[in-house]
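Handoff note, outgoing to incoming analyst
You'll be picking up this chain. Sequence as last confirmed:
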Amino acid sequence: MISGNLSRYSIIALVTAFAALSAGSAMANDRREHGHQGQQFRHFEHHEHHAWHEHRRHEEFRHEHPRRAEVNHRIDNQERQIGQDRRDGELSASQAKNLRQQDQSIKRQEEADVAANHGYLTGAEQAQLNKELNGVEQEIPR
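Most recent structure output, in case you need it:
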């Protein structure tokens, strides 16, 4: 588990950047060793660089997309409320565990939906997830 200020997305971005830099270094060495100074090689490097920036831009958008943010915010709030209600004695350990498992199941579904849609959550998927979250929310004492 990663602690501190680095999220798994930050780690992925760092690894991707390092891989891109390493690949660029390897290509430069390859060019020097084989004498490839032509336009074709530079053209390839330009497209690789552009593709990396496009990927990075889409990664940032996906994680901050309003539909995802809303669903994930609700899941986080429900998990906080479950913990508070458990501490206050309003929920038994088994009730809290059951509610957390339901939230985790919804989170896994959100992640699967996003993976199936190239990083985006459709409006219909968001509506379905919200419906499921509403069901869990009704089971949480207020």
